[in-house]
Design a protein that fits this description.
Length: 56
């Protein structure tokens, strides 16, 4: 942690910055996983909306 002190004795703490890197394009198996997660999320939201409509 990087710390400075000004003329009044006040400490200023600065966090260390993380290493920056470029993101890589997801692999085919990761893309398939995202599609499956999207399908399950869509089914869950659709089910909740239909239950909400049927209850009201």
């Amino acid at each position: 942690m990087y710390t400075t002190v000004n003329e009044n004795g006040v400490l200023n703490n600065y966090p260390t910055e993380p290493q920056v890197y470029c993101a890589e394009y997801p692999a085919i198996w990761e893309q398939r996983k995202y599609v499956i997660q999207g399908v399950f999320a869509t089914l869950l939201v659709t089910t909740l909306v239909l239950v909400g409509i049927s209850v009201s």
